Amino acid sequence: MPAVSVKRYSQRLSSYRYRCGNTAAVYGNEDGTAAVYGNEDAVGDAVREAIATGLCTREELFITSKLWVQDMANYDLAKAGIDASLKKSGLDYFDLYLLHQAMGDYFSAWRALEDAYEAGKLKAIGVSNFYAHVLANFCETVRITPMVNQVELHPYFAQPAALETMKHYNVQPEAWAPLGGGRHKPYENEMLERIADAHQKTIAQVVLRWNVQRGVTVIPKSTRQERIEENFTIWDFSLTDNEMAQINTLDLGYVGEAVKHFNPEFVRGCLGVKIHD
Asked: Is 37 an active-site residue?
């Protein structure tokens, strides 16, 4: 899987087609989708258009989707959810498919992912938003260990202990909101600005590079072509140990702001989101 990819939520189909086609041609892009985002059909259309016009091949793309919690109540629902995602996208397979949250009967849902993986429908399988203690229990229990855990990871929520747990189980960490998800102001941080100036890079590039040097795959969200290209231009410099340590001091050390599995209202809210009848 690519070390840097592009996050997409629900935008206009024309925007999907434009960005998927252009970034795929340059980078071998990962396209992030999920059942609950309502974008699987649009991403599938964009992929087919990019391939048909010769911008890329299917093998140059890395397409991720996620199973929503409504379809994680049992094995049969999960199996049907996987098939529904493939049908909506019009793709023969997903390169990576994740359980979206550690909710519902995620052990039974995981068995459906294991079977789809062995059937070739899913090239890799993983989880999303699994805290370290949940991931440890999960890895010790399931037949096929998750290959990826997609979680909130940025300088203000660095999760060093979670990274150690993932390393122990050989699970690749993947960061959503690697720039802080709009809830922090890294672009106004003087220390980050000094480091960026020293490397003649942007603050965003420095923050992404910080995560990559920790072994984390990053998926920054963007709708602008120039920002997408900027996000990939992080391979021609390295942060020093001292710079990494300085950025580490930004960690606030709390459980994430966007995903709050310890908050009953958040859990009930997720379980109440229905994406189909």
From this structure: yes
